[in-house]
Amino acid sequence: MSLFNKEDWDEIFSFEVKKIPKIDKSIINLMKKYSVTDLSKFRKIIFEPFLPTSTPYSNKEHFELNYIHLAYSIMHTFWEDNDNFSLDSSKLEGWYQLNIWGPLIDSVFRCSNINLIRGEGMNRASSDRKNQTNYGRRSERKEMEYLG
Predict the structure, then answer these.
(1) Which residue in 60, 76, 120, 146 is a FRET match for 84, CA 20 to 30 A apart?
(2) Is 82 left (phi over 0), alpha (psi -120 to 50) or beta?
(3) C-alpha–C-alpha distance, residues 34 and 32, integer Å
(4) What are residue 26's phi and psi, to 5 degrees?
(5) For 128, phi and psi rounded to 5 degrees?
(6) pLDDT higher for 30 or 106?
(7) Which portions of the chain have biased composition (kind: Basic and acidic residues) (predicted)?
(8) Rounded Cα distance, 69 and 25, in Å
(9) Sequence-distant (≥ 6) Cβ neighbours of residue 7 within 8 angstroms
(10) Considering the entire predicted model, what is its pTM?
(11) CA distance 55 to 101
(12) Is the dihedral of CA 140, 142, 146, 148 positive or negative?
């Protein structure tokens, strides 16, 4: 049993379907180069330059290669420590945010001009609702303002 009938599926797969972007050969080659399972081999590879020696770095041209190198370098530090972080149930969500997701995800958003804000905050609707006089008894707490 399906949630969608044939007409629905046809529409889903035909509506503004975008082409899969072509991945540059240099990115594929670097990913293949880093795809080894032996740590001693990986250690040797990760410290090699990811650009040819005579090529000056350009963020516009080489950001993806730099990001791939950064991501593998970050993970390399965990692999060197023999840190079974993925199997360690004692590590809390904050540990993963700080050590894994922060370094890996934040750097790619920085280049995309996306303002990523980590942490908890109160949105304007919630703040406005809590500050209304008809919303229960007013507390002595400071009224929150929207800072966005």
Answers:
(1) 120
(2) left
(3) 5
(4) -65, -35
(5) -60, -45
(6) 30
(7) 126-148
(8) 15
(9) none
(10) 0.64
(11) 30
(12) negative
Higher pLDDT: 125 or 56? It is: 56
3-class DSSP state for residue 86?
Answer: coil
CB 88 within 8 A of CB 99: no
For 6-46, write each residue's pLDDT tens digit.
Answer: 999 988 888 887 788 899 999 999 999 999 999 999 999 99
**How high is the pLDDT of residue 144?**
60
129 three-state secondary structure:
helix
User: How far, in Å, are 58, 97, 103, 109 from residue 113 at the CA level?
Assistant: 17, 20, 16, 6
Output DSSP code: residue 50.
Answer: S
| Termini Cα distance of the chain | 46
39-46 helix and 25-34 helix, angle to the nearest 10 degrees: 140
